[in-house]
Amino acid sequence: MKPADFLCPECGSAKAASYMEVDRIGPPDRTLPWSGVLWMATCAECGYCIPAHLAERWGGLSVEEARREWREIFREWPDARRKW
Ligand SMILES: [Zn+2]
Questions:
Q1: Domains of the chain: which residue ranges?
Q2: 20 to 30 Å CA-CA from 16: which of 24, 38, 44, 82?
């Protein structure tokens, strides 16, 4: 994990407050996008929990693509505002 790669798709901050490994019981459920997220980062600025693959743009994801995926898929789920 390189914190320098963090970029919040919500507010654009490069400051991650913390990373959390997510404990999931059972296999990922395709109808619940968060169930496939293994790492998440908390943004130090806006406080949203961001899936690490979007915050760090794994697999060569562009900033725009990460932002779109965040807004369309993850942002509305209660997990995004969960306090860990
Ligand atoms: Zn943020």
A1: 3-81
A2: 24
